[in-house]
Amino acid sequence: MRIGILALQGAFIEHKYAFDKLGVDSFEIRQKRDIEEHFDALVIPGGESTVIGKLLHKLELFEPIKKMIENGMPVFGTCAGLIVLAKNVIGEEPHLALMDITVKRNAYGKQIDSFSQDVIIPEVSKEPFPLVFIRAPWIEGVGDNARVLCELDGHIVAARQDNILVTSFHPELTENLSFHKYFIDMIS
């Protein structure tokens, strides 16, 4: 198994460290030739969704990545990655527009409003999982094709649709590898 991690901007190296700890091969995708390598799944990390969206176009990665996901490649989007994958983004044009969700950017406030909270997500782990929110979005609603994995205070913060997994929080910034294991199970 080999996982490509979109390394254009944001918290990509932390995902690599998580996969390294799990003994899973991963590599950074920075340019078009990188997606010519064999890989089984993709991670779109947290960062700035607008910048990621622009760079996908500028580096000619947008169409190939969109096709890969449409053809069933598993993808895990965290925070900004969730926004990049959403069909609907309140107040702006969507990017890849692949997941049947509506997202509100920066719903949890500014950088100074960042926080962490432990939650049990039964489908992912029986132990409490630390949810780390940094200028995080939340999911306002899911369409018929998506399902909620986790809510926090009445807001959806994790969801799945077929081969697409998204979180509004940053599992890569914790020592808990449950979400990365869950994603690996999706790939298998």
Key terms:
single chain; 188 residues; alpha/beta; 7-stranded mixed beta sheet; 3-stranded mixed beta sheet; 32% strand
Order of SSEs, N→C? EHEEHHEHEEEEEEEEH
Strand order of the largest sheet: 2-1-3-4-12-11-10
* Spatial separation of the terminal alpha carbons: 8 Å
User: What is the residue-mean pLDDT, rounded to a whole number?
Assistant: 95
Number of strands: 12
Class from secondary-structure proportions: alpha/beta
Bin the strand percentage: 25-35%
CA-atom Rg in angstroms: 15 Å
Helix content: 10-25%
Q: What characterizes the major β-sheet?
A: 7 strands, mixed
Q: Which residues form runs of ≥5 with pLDDT under 50?
A: none
Count of helical regions: 5
| Global geometry | globular
Explain this structure.
The protein is 24% helix and 32% strand. The protein is globular, with a radius of gyration of 15 Å. The longest helix is centred in the N-terminal third of the chain and has 10 residues, at 12-21. Strands 2-1-3-4-12-11-10 form a 7-stranded mixed β-sheet. It has a 3-stranded mixed β-sheet with strand order 5-6-9. A two-stranded antiparallel ribbon has the order 7-8. By secondary structure, the chain is of the alpha/beta class.
